[in-house]
Specification:
Layout lengths: L1 H11 L1 H14 L6 H25 L7 H5 L16 H17 L2 H20 L5 H13 L2 H20 L1
Helix pairs in contact: 1-6, 2-5, 2-6, 3-5, 3-7, 5-6, 5-7
């Protein structure tokens, strides 16, 4: 029973994250700004993924996952690699951040952030990641937010340019 709950947290909670983020990004991003928003989301995701793969190539805290070290079965799905940073944590956090920066819907973002925490805790309890792996995944997802920060600069510069012309 407890193993089923852990598996649902570690793997199953990803499905509502994808569904909620998909809905928000398809229907709640303003129509006139979708191309720019989707471009930022794509670039943020690609940047985070590239940083994750580069980081994994140069740093692995352990060559084995916790379940391998303990000699038990994994409690969730996993890829055949050392596990740092966690792809599940990275993807969940990336979608949460994309929804926040592109829609500014506080309620949806809180739900997504809560589900992301559930995924991260589930991955650790399933023994497929260490806490460092999931923290690394979330932090790497935050690297992609640099693409969203440029929109703030453009919004500040446009009113200044209009007042300068007047």
């Amino acid at each position: 029973m407890i193993q089923t709950i852990i598996k649902l947290c570690a793997d199953g909670a990803l499905l509502p994250i994808i569904a909620i983020a998909g809905y928000a990004l398809l229907f709640l991003v303003p129509k006139g700004h979708r191309f720019e928003a989707y471009t930022r989301i794509l670039m943020a995701g690609m940047t985070a993924y590239l940083v994750a793969k580069l980081l994994a190539a140069v740093y692995q805290p352990s060559g084995e996952r916790p379940f391998e070290i303990l000699g038990v079965k994994p409690g969730a799905l996993y890829l055949q690699n050392a596990g740092f940073p966690s792809d599940h944590a990275l993807f969940s956090a990336f979608l949460t951040l994309a929804v926040w920066f592109e829609t500014r819907r506080k309620g949806l973002t809180i739900i997504l952030a809560s589900l992301t925490v559930i995924v991260c805790i589930g991955r650790v309890l399933a023994l497929v990641h260490t806490p460092l792996d999931v923290i690394g995944g979330v932090l790497v997802a935050c690297v992609g937010t640099l693409w969203y920060l440029q929109t703030k600069q453009k919004q500040v510069q446009q009113p200044l340019a209009k007042t300068a012309k007047s």
